Amino acid sequence: MRAVPIARYGAPDVLQVTHADVPEPGPGQVLIAAEAVSVGFAQTQMRRDCFPAPMWKPTLPVVLGGDVVGRVEAVGPQVEHVKAGDRVGAFLMQGAYAEYAVADAATLVPVPEGLDAAAATVLPGAGPIAVGTLATGRLGAGETVLVHAAAGGIGHLSVQLAKLAGAGRVIATASSPAKLDFARSLGADAVVDYTRPGWTEEVATAAGGRGVDLILDSVGGDVLLAGIGLLAPGGRLVFYGSAGGGTEVPKVPVLDLIGLKFVTGFSLSAWQRLHPQQYSDGLAELTDHLMSGRLKAAVHARLPLVEAAKGHEIIESRAHQGRVVLLPRTA
Questions:
Q1: What is the CA radius of gyration of the chain?
Q2: 36 forms bridges with which residues in the sheet?
Q3: CA-based angle 26:305:112, to the nearest 5?
Q4: How far is CA 251 from CA 87, 128, 231, 275, in A?
Q5: Is-contact 29 300, C-beta < 8 A?
Q6: Cβ distance 138 to 162 under 8 Å?
Q7: Residue 52 has what pLDDT?
Q8: pLDDT score recorded for residue 239
Q9: Are 172 and 315 within 8 A, CB to CB?
Q10: What is residue 53's predicted lDDT score, i.e. its pLDDT?
Q11: What pLDDT score does 247 carry?
Q12: Among 30, 73, 112, 321, whose Cα sits 20 to 30 Å from the Cα of 197?
């Protein structure tokens, strides 16, 4: 099979296509013949060895991870609830940039027939993260939500899901006029370029001067710290990524929270473990929204596996609107 490992850390050109043996699924695992594989900002950080979370300590060479959608090719021992031919999705920390991938059967999500494979890559990871951050932030009907990086692979889903969940006002931030227009087209009530000086004043004005009830922050850094000042009394900030760059997550001064403000971190795996029913219900609703057309999973680029480096270049250029997806079966 074709695979795209990295043998060293560095620029996108370290992503080189090679031929490898098709892996064998072990106990509790399945082999997936991949139809589509997502490219995310986290994978560009992993490629550069600046991913801020401690779970990324692989032995090189390694094939990067991502959201994989495809059909079960084979099942290993002790797998009973899925079978060969089932259409599934899985989020993998490693092993996704390939024509075949091995995943733990317990982590699989069902992918409906007829759903575009590239769009379906939101089901294993990006979509549940958008759902989970809103649930963790306890969005209430009529509340004001600030979504950072609102044109990205997760943020563009968060804008739509917040509206579907009854948010009174959704303020979206992005880094270019095209991205701001994109966020507005998805239902954002106000858009702000968070790379401009004075962006916090624009958000405050858009929130009507009373503050923001919920912030979904995948940028981190100074943007996270500035967001605390935008929270209304009782407001919540959910941090789930550091797309702003760097490996250091800022320290939050406790005194900044005196006005009954709340900051929490989010990871998909922790949410699944702590709230399995909420995760299950959220995934079902997410799938229903996709199938009905109420939720748009935008795909900015569809690339063959051999152009994985180009996928990383698109992500790092900050030009994408929605998902960047590799299609392993495309020549």
A1: 19
A2: 69
A3: 65
A4: 42, 26, 17, 27
A5: no
A6: no
A7: 79
A8: 96
A9: no
A10: 74
A11: 57
A12: 321
Query: In angstroms, rounded to a whole number, what is the distance separating the alpha carbons of residues 236 and 159?
Result: 16
Determine the pLDDT at residue 251.
86
- How far from 145 is each of 155, 188, 189, 220, CA to CA, in Å? 12, 10, 10, 17
Residue 280: both structure tokens together: 């299950």
Which stretches of the chain drop beneath a pLDDT of 50? none
Taking Cα atoms as reference points, which of 66, 158, 160, 84 lies closest to residue 121?
66
CA distance 47 to 314: 14
Q: Per the structure block, which two tokens stand in for 289? A: 């929204």
Query: Do 32 and 45 form a contact (C-beta atoms < 8 A)?
Result: no
The predicted structure's pLDDT at residue 246: 56
The residue count for the chain: 331
Residues 6+ apart with CB under 8 A from 203: 146, 171, 173, 192, 212, 230
Which pLDDT does position 215 carry in this prediction? 98
Tally Cβ neighbours within 10 Å of residue 161.
28
Phi-psi region of 318 (alpha: psi -120 to 50; beta: other; left: phi over 0): left
Give me the pLDDT at residue 245, please. 58
pLDDT at site 194: 94
Rounded to whole angstroms, the Cα distance separating 135 from 148 reads: 17
Q: How far is CA 219 from the centre of its chain?
A: 12
Kindly write down the DSSP assignment for every residue of 80-149, as one continuous string: -S--TT-EEEEEEEES-SBSEEEEEGGG-EE--TTS-HHHHTIIIIIHHHHHHHHHHTT--TT-EEEESS
Q: Per residue in 57-92, is it b (16+ CB within 10 Å) or e — as a string?
A: eeeeebbbbbbbbbbbbbbbeebeebeeebbbbbbb
Task: For residue 276, give every residue at least 6 positions away whose Cβ sits within 8 Å of its Cβ, in sequence order, or none.
Answer: none
| Contact of 87 with 71, CB cutoff 8 Å | yes
